[in-house]
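Morning, I've got a small favour to ask if you have a moment. Here's the protein in full, and shout if anything looks odd to you:
***
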Amino acid sequence: MNNLAIRVENLSKRYRIGARQAGYKTLRESLTSAFTAPFRRLQRTGDRGRKTEPPSSAPGPRSSVSGQPSTDGYIWALKDLSFEIKSGEVVGIIGRNGAGKSTLLKLLSRVTRPTRGRAEIYGRVGSLLEVGTGFHPELTGRENTYLNGAILGMSRAEIDRKFDEIVAFAEIEEFIDTPVKHYSSGMYVRLGFAVAAHLEPSVLLVDEVLAVGDAPFWTKSINRIRELQNQGMTVLLVTHNMWLVQTACVRAICLEKGEAVADGSPLHVIQTYQHRVAALLDTRSQRDDPPPPGETRLDVFRVHRERGWLSEKEASPDAGLRVEMAGECPHHPAVKFLIRVTSSDGLPYFTVYSDLHAVPPGKRIACEASIPHLMLLPGEYLLWGAICSAEGEDNLLAQQRLPFSVTDAASTVHKYGLFWNRAHWRVGQSE
């Protein structure tokens, strides 16, 4: 028990479909609401005493498919989830949008209460959820820092010692006495993470919100997480970044429709997740309807395997390919072609564009592109072909994709990174 940081037992959360959440209140509104609450309760008691008609019956709890709307107007965001996390573990939580990842962190952070089940956390908890969670918009950055520290159980003296370090890490010295409602999303993230990571909780919960920050801050934040792990902190990290899960986490859990479908080593869980996403994409592609007449369409997408292919859908890391594309673009005078390779869940590895080409009225446009070396590590991939406007991927007009895999059974040296490459070496003794 002493080595346990988080225990989750049959944790479930149900939401009513279409229910709205109220926005934040100002300090004046909060004080007014607190002052008038006794009078509102007295009025409601009187209203109930005067009722002559029975209240309308509301649907009670009933079982439903996890993560899917039920016939009674509810949805299960989490369904009977159970796991344990040891102290000092960095665990990545992955899954598609709507799988229940953020709901899990909200329950662990006590932002919302479970419908049933329980979650136990041993030690002080710090959390970074959606942008602005835990901050009062009317308070300044300084005031919110002290407020969050107090919520975490820190004394004012402890916060005083950490305050300058927090502000420097967040890079908002000029705005620390400005109400946070005037902050950009990036400023919110920087201050929120700095507070959560520097007040040294025993357990740190981090949502995908780090993706809002810029690249230098993201790198600094990940380094801070690794530093905290070395100090024995437990970190639960929700992310779509598979590279981060592989490099920063010692364990991963994949959620789907509110349930855990894989739990174990990061590489194993990532592969399970990617296979499930690929199967879903294949199912969807079989149901895709052709574009209506008059719309841009990519009706030719042929892949010619050149050297290094072991089978129709299996390539070696050094394999090459040639792609033919053609289509109709009746409403666009000029277009580009795009070829992209992604992971099976859509993480882009590289993208290449053609030049911008004019489309003669009433004519089709075609292209051919050659990629001599894929230079990919063994794994599952998607090859995308697309027609886009002059804006590039910001305005994709039509696209198609083909799944393929890369294998390299003869080699065991390609273990790290997203790509592989060769180098010419000269090794000798130094004077």
Q: What stands out?
A: Residues 4-15+72-277 form a domain with the Rossmann fold fold (CATH 3.40.50.300).
